[in-house]
Amino acid sequence: MKNQGTAIKVTKKARFFIFSFNFLIVNCLSNFNNLSVRAASEEPVLTVVQSTENKQQWTGITKRLQAIGVNYCVVPLAQVKSSADWGDRRVLFLPNIETLTPAQAIALESWVSKGGKVIASGPVGSLSAPGVRQLLRSLLGSYWGFGLDETQQLKPAKTQPPRWANQSELFGQVRGGVIIPEGGTSQATAVWNAQDNPAAVVSTEWSTLFGWRWGTDAASSFELDNAWLKAALNHHLTAPSPGQQKIAGADSNCATTIATASLNSPSPFTPITPIIPQAPLVPRTPRPSSPEAIDQLEQTVRWNVEPNSNQPIDEKEAIALQQELENLISRVESAHLAASVHAANLNEAITSNPQSLKEEETRVASTRPGLSIPSKEQAIAQARLVAKNIPQLIANKNYALVRQQWLATRTNLWKHFPTNRRLAPAEIRAVWLDRGTIVRAGGEKKLAEVFDRLAQSGINTVFFETLNASYPIYPSRVAPQQNPLIRGWNPLAVAVKLAHERDMELHAWVWTFAAGNQRHNQLINVHPDYPGPVLAAHPNWANYDNKGNTIPPGQTKPFFDPANPELRQYLLKLFAEIVTEYQVDGLQLDYIRYPFQDPFAGRTYGYGQAARVQFQKLTGVDPLTISPTQGELWQKWTEFRTQQVDSFVAEVSQMMRQKRADLILSVAVFPLPERERIQKLQQHWEVWARRGDIDVIVPMTYAQDTARFQRLAQPWIASSQLGSTLLVPGIRLLSLPNLAAFDQLQLIRDLPASGYALFAAENFNNDLLKIFTSTQGKVSSGADEPIPLRQPFQTAVVRYELLKREWQYVIQNELVQIPAIKITDFNNQIEVVEKALNQLATAPSPAKLLTARASLTRFQSQFRIWMRETATNNPYQVKVWENRLATIERLLRYGERRSQLR
After folding, report:
1. Quick check: helix, strand or coil at residue 173?
2. Are 237 and 45 in contact (CB under 8 A)?
3. CA 565 to chain centre
4. Are residue 176 and residue 67 in the same domain, yes or no?
5. Do you know which SUPFAM superfamilies this protein is assigned to (predicted)?
6. Which of 154, 423, 853, 855 is 20–30 Å from 604 (CA)?
7. What sign results for the dihedral spanned by CA atoms 885, 890, 893, 899?
């Protein structure tokens, strides 16, 4: 995107994401009051966009608009066909619209390029396709980041707010979310009285975004909403606009009919009348589809470091930038230490291996042709200097220079990771092998090539997409239909054989409560609203939102009703078929939740026939008549739905233990905060872990930068609520630079985690294959590396041996400060723990487990004393060692449950 004045032009790359569309303008409404800045009171100045998403809120929106005193027109979003259909008004208002099609975004871009101004509110476009979201970010100069858990005080921006937004009536208590500025022309007009004072309103010359759902009493007061819209209108109507007031080429007609009852939301007491298509197969031209293997968690919070932005940097942001550079320096040093001691013996470490060092310098040189290549030590020294100078540059208001140096330093440090030498510990190295990759393979030969690449790179666990949108990928006697994209072969049977031939685990990855998929329907040429073969055969198993939709607005998948006993028995029978007829090593439950909801925005889900009957029997109340404002009753409804998921996980776990006790049960879950997750997804995986129902939790901690990844993953890795369950963070490879992915891997290895999972195989490129092969590929000695899922005690031994070698290395090279009198005691205690772990791994027993845990606990408590002085000078590395000891302790807990050593 390029900005020339207020004209915004979309690049060819942005248009790549945009598909054509058709809209028709329907009618406009107007209120005949005046706004002080209007030049002609008889002409509307504001176009308000109505969609299915704000229809329920329309009464509140209309009342506010009528009270403001501005003539306005209403344009239904679904019927616009070009930029002209936005009308000839100067300002366009998008209240609480989360889904725009690519073509609608193009129309908006064209309209703005002609001089139109935009006001938006709430998570505008947040449920749209990635290309649309990117275009909207450029158009609005900001985007919705994330919702705040509690009502917050709205207050003026810390820097000088614009004159149009400094009236006292603009500030008060609001329930909203954080707005992230995008680009150098964006200005935080108001902020939240929360940690770091994040932006609540962001404006540019041509746009304003309110960080709450305007027009909803649950979010903001009538008076505050009106004050902000008035202020924004005055700002945009008095600001200079290229060309004339009427947008060139825009439609000049504006109907002035008044809103009718048909525009209002139906009563929540209206009975749901579901519609399940019965004749789904229709000729349809396939359209391009984006990756759909699992829901991709929206990346809403990033560092957002724009190299040329001279926006002010406050003290807290400066500290964060410094800290992230220091952490990255420490991750690079930690990786080099691991690479140094991973050789056959200490004499082969990198510091005494000139050839390896030369290879590393050659690798870095190849990435920076024509430049002199600093050593790792020089790069780190330079990075520390950049971090140290950040406060002074900020004091001198050299904000753009700070950002430029920060980005350049991060890139340079990434290039000094030792990616050409083995450094990985024994860990879970998992990948989701998605349906698209399986279908493209088309048979055993090509699928074997996929498994060869994964095995070469050191991957030891494959989550194989076995059930997608109710279609099993194998010929089933339980399910009504095999996936029609598979012809003439059985991918699951082939995958089990290929994985086991390569000493890899193969876990069947299944969609649980997601019943269909509109994107999959496009691929197989059926009606887009086809609910999938199971719901088509059993429509009474369907789930609904509070408006009777099986697919919530802005989403793509219908869901089953987890409260339906027949549906539960069907799924249990299907899962039992998978684990008994195929020698899979485990089962992974995906979509083990309800679809995303937002109760305070009037979007709720879970009103299947069985759920309504059961809840009414328990409470005497139809849940469809309950609103989130009814605290205790709403909480009971939330607990009821959450319990449906909880109890089904327990049933799957029990079934698997009865069929095959050796199976591993894992779950792919959202890493949202616990309370928010229960309200929005009814997914309470902490309970499953504490009960011992599951073996592995795989949170989808997808992020485009390591700092955000750490904020998502670290609280769960460090959680004490997971019992003996292992936690394996997920990394999304799509659009992630290879070295950024490696940086996230290194962070995981420095935290008390047992491994990682990559989404997905289709994004596993050749450069990443080369890095992984060097850093974690199979060892040439022929010794099998244990997999933590299967051999936790042996893994503990191998990981502890690596720790021991690191300590020996740093002591020999005087890199730690341990008093000489204590080194002997330190070395003796190392041997005590090693002996106990080896004895446990050789012949597990309750007594040996008790001894191993006691010796490890004793060592951990003394370790803090031994490393006290070192922790002062190198706190990161000492914390890494403590984390790795904690990982060993967790492996012992997990091994205790798996081996039933109680």
Report:
1. strand
2. yes
3. 32
4. yes
5. (Trans)glycosidases, Class I glutamine amidotransferase-like
6. 154
7. negative
Query: Is residue 424 situated within a structural domain?
Result: no
pTM over 0.85: no
Please report the pLDDT score of residue 547 as a whole number.
92
Residue type (1 letter), 822: K
List of the chain residues with pLDDT < 70: 1-44, 81-89, 129-131, 134, 160, 183-184, 239-307, 343-374, 779-783, 901-902
Question: Is residue 774 included in any domain, yes or no?
Answer: no
Here the tokens at position 832 are 């005590």
At 184 the pLDDT is 61
- Of the candidates 185, 190, 181, 183, the residue with the CA atom closest to the CA atom of residue 159: 190
Number of domains in the chain: 4
CA 840 centroid distance within chain: 39
Tracing tokens 């990786």 back to the chain, one arrives at 335
Residues linked to residue 506 through DSSP beta bridges, in sequence order = 462
Measured N-to-C along each axis, helices 315-341 and 376-395 cross at an angle, to the nearest 10 degrees, of: 170
Does residue 85 sit in the same domain as residue 135? Answer: yes
Summarised one tens digit per residue, pLDDT across range 248-304 is 333 334 433 333 322 233 333 334 444 344 433 333 333 333 333 333 343 333 445
Contact 114, 135 (CB under 8 A): no
**Side chain identity, residue 340:** S
Q: Which two tokens stand for residue 846?
A: 């309750």
Residues 191 and 56 grouped into a single domain: yes
The label of the residue with tokens 């009464």 reads: 59
For residue 809, the enclosing domain spans 795-899
Pair (341, 475) in one structural domain: no
- The whole-angstrom separation of Cα 501 and Cα 494 is 11
The whole-angstrom separation of Cα 443 and Cα 74 is 54
